Amino acid sequence: MTSISKGSSEFQQSLVDAVAKRFGSAVLNTNQFRGDQWLLISAASLPDILTYLRDTTEFQMNFLSDIVGVDMLGRSQPRFEIIYNLYSMFNFNRVFLKVAVDEGQPIPSATAVFPGADFPEREIYDMFGVKFTGHPDLTRILMPDDWVGHPLRKDFPLGGEEIEFTQDTHGPSTSEEQQPYPGSSFFGITGSSEREE
Q1: 168 or 96, which is more confident?
Q2: Residues in a beta bridge with 97
Q3: How much is the pTM?
């Protein structure tokens, strides 16, 4: 096996070509940004593409670094993007797989391919409400079981408790007049409390 250097555009292009050839229309778009390769793929093809990238000797994307969710409310359709950060500990390359899903649309779980996907998928379910089919224990992980809603959705209501600070002011989410957060100012200078009129 030939060694391809970290962040190699040759490696990334060969990965894109191989995935596109094998999975065809399941690859919806590709993008390279600041040395990172991104593939937008269909939700149904996710487990197969993950397995292919993990098991193919040429790529060996054997480490699932992270899974993150993004709420694109008002910016694009479908509403949510789930991003899988894959890394190869053999050839030191990284690739990001992005899956776009609408509200209420389930996505296949990656736990059968990468058991470490368990907690990140639970966190995405808890914070965004995206459901993963085939997950062994899709329950809340951060919020209490009786919590209503999903706090990282952009339409989740902002609220707060009234907190009185030492200068007889209230926190920014509950006061009538907007106040700087403790330790900062509106102008980015820590400790400055003067306002320009």
Answers
A1: 96
A2: 39, 84
A3: 0.77
